[in-house]
Amino acid sequence: MLDHTKSRPSLREAFGSRTADAQPARSGSPSKGGAKLDRQAILLLGVNALFTCANALSGTFVNIYIWKIKNDYTLLGWFAVAHQLTMSLTFWLAGKWVKEGNKMNALRVGVAMSAVFYGIVLLLGTRAADYIALLGFVQGISSGLFWLAFNVVYFEITNRDNRDRFNGVTGLLGSIAGMIVPWISGYLITKSAGNTGYRLIFSISLAVFVAGAVLTFFLHKRKIESRYDWRGGFRGLGRRDNPWRIIGLAMVAQGLREGIFGFMVALLVYISTKSEMKIGNFSLYTSAVALGSFWLAGRLYKPRYRQWGMLAGVLMMSVSILPLFWGVSYGTLLLFGIGTALFFPLYTIPSVSIVFDQIGSDEESVRRREEYIIFRELALNAGRFLGTIVFIAVISRSTAPLVINIMLLAFGSSPILVWLLLRRRLAAMAPAPKL
């Protein structure tokens, strides 16, 4: 499974009703619908699926496109840094718009800015590598607006009972997209002369983003409940009993892995094979495994299994990196990718759910849901930024395979730290056994 990790993310009335707008999730309590997903949740899954498809179609290959122009690891690192910093600033500034304005418009603009990003790439052509800061800036705005609005709406239309199911379905759809779409991209690029294939997939991505923007108009406008607090989730962090201290540190640790793996996996496949089609095949095989593991996790992974299931997941994700020390080849990369895809749901579903369960833990947290979502994303981006800066510093001194592998193992094992930080909360939030 190609690692394009982004942050990802009360059921009351059927599609067409406005009651749900006035009744977002309260205290994480079970909804009338139990663990089922209503039509608004399904529509949100559809928007996310289109956004994921468009990014799967071209997102991986943007980095390969830039690499082919310049063959520079650090250039890709600075592209990621520009994206991460702009995304963080967008989250913080757009929080007021999402909380006090129309969050659906923020969602639409986020999708539209992704279309603008690929439009700029098409316009620049082979000069894209000279405008890394601009590309990172536009992509950061797109990601910030989309994921902020998406995560707020996600919280409002899910509850503690169905959140794992929603996350499981999200992972399932992402795996389907990751399995089929990059393979199509690799095929089109391989069969086209020069950069024609790249221009084609960037154009298709632009069209898919437009379709995603249209679908957002079927989502209900959400009710405005309170004013935006600029200090938001940072308030009270000085108190030792504040649960967000530990959650924030865990999100920083999670971001350490995402900052590097978000672009290095596909790049290593390309460097090892010199074939975009191999990247498509890699995604096909690993996402097929992820498809099955997310499907099983969505059906069987209950809150009471989170603590030890997550530990098993993070340990096996770290073990999956070890084959790269035998030599970075397509075969060892495939072993790494399949191992990660197999165990990733055990890690990511609890790490996402625990944040939103905490937001839904009381009325005050629910009212400040936008601020806490922003806090989560800022913490994640702090980890991504730190990881990428270390990557740039190390890779500027040496690009030896052993150095790269040690760095991948070090940052790829950061989920173990996430588990260590969250293990008590995972245990505490598990439902008590029935007598």
Description:
By secondary structure, the protein is mostly helical. It has a single domain (38-219, 232-428), classed as MFS general substrate transporter like domains (Growth Hormone, Chain: A), CATH 1.20.1250.20. 74% of the residues lie in helices and 0% in strands. The protein has 15 helices and no strands. The protein has helices spanning 19-22, 39-70, 73-100, 103-124, 132-157, 163-191, 196-215, 243-273, 276-300, 306-319, 330-359, 363-367, 369-397, 401-412, 414-429. It is globular and about 55 Å long. 53% of the residues are buried.
What layout of secondary structure does this protein have?
Blueprint (H helix, E strand, L loop, with lengths): L18 H4 L16 H32 L2 H28 L2 H22 L7 H26 L5 H29 L4 H20 L27 H31 L2 H25 L5 H14 L10 H30 L3 H5 L1 H29 L3 H12 L1 H16 L6
Helix pairs in contact: 2-5, 2-6, 2-7, 2-8, 3-4, 3-5, 3-13, 4-5, 4-7, 5-13, 6-7, 6-9, 6-11, 8-9, 8-11, 8-13, 8-15, 9-11, 10-11, 10-15, 11-15, 13-14
- Classified in CATH, the superfamily is MFS general substrate transporter like domains
Q: Outline the low-pLDDT stretches.
A: 3-34
Major sheet details: none
Return the CATH topology. Growth Hormone, Chain: A
Number of domains: 1
Summarize the structure.
By secondary structure, the chain is mainly α.
